[in-house]
Amino acid sequence: MIKNIKLVIVDVDGVLTDGTIYVDSQGCEIKAFSVLDGTGISYLHRAGIKTAIISGRTCDAVIHRAKELGIEDVYQGAKDKIDAYGKIMEKYALRDEEVCYIGDDLIDLPILHRVGFPVAVANASPIVKCQSDYVTKARGGHGAVREVAEKILKFQDKWHLIMERYDIRNLIYKEKKCEF
Q: What is stated as this protein's family in its record (predicted)?
């Protein structure tokens, strides 16, 4: 369940991106990543929750983005994602129920069936949505990872760790009465 999550693993195409693949005239692949998702990943790290990437495709842009975000565990070209998942689980000595996985397509199903908090993005395949405990309102590449990060942090009562940095928690509560 959400309160036990210590690791969030994400797919790339369709989750960290909108699934569009850009190829320039030299054949180089270009990906567009959402700043919202990057911020959500940073929030997870700040609250002590690890993150990892498992992707069926391989692209240098993913390595660059992961490095920017401080994601240490990146598995690309993973046609059998369960193998990469097993390596991450062994490295951190975690139990399945301590992991959230965010996916969008059939290749993600084996991991989604194992983790404690399986999540599908809004644009996921219908069967992936059906097999997930939560379906984001945001589409992949448009803040879906950020949405999940906030949900986990709020449920674990760690959202204050994020808000305190901006010294606006009391202001928001008093003047706007926003929900957290």
A: Belongs to the KdsC family.
Q: Is the torsion defined by CA of 91, 95, 98, 101 positive or negative?
A: positive
In sequence order, what DSSP letters do the residues of 53-97 get, joined into one string? EE-SS--HHHHHHHHHHT--EEE-S-SSHHHHHHHHHHHHT--GG
Q: How many CB atoms lie within 10 A of CB 27?
A: 6
62 HSE (CA, 13 A, CB side): 23
Taking the model in full, what pTM does it have?
0.92
Classify 131 as helix, strand or coil.
coil
Cα separation, 51 vs 15, whole angstroms:
14
| Residue from 108, 77, 100 nearest 152 by CA | 100
pLDDT band at 66 (very low <50, low <70, confident <90, very high): very high
Domains observed in the chain: 2-176 (3.40.50.1000)
Sheet holding 99-103, edge to edge: 73-75, 50-54, 7-10, 99-103, 117-120, 134-135
**Four-CA torsion 59, 65, 70, 74, nearest 10 degrees:** -20
CA-based torsion, 56, 140, 117, 173: positive or negative: positive
Token readout for 140 is 């992949």
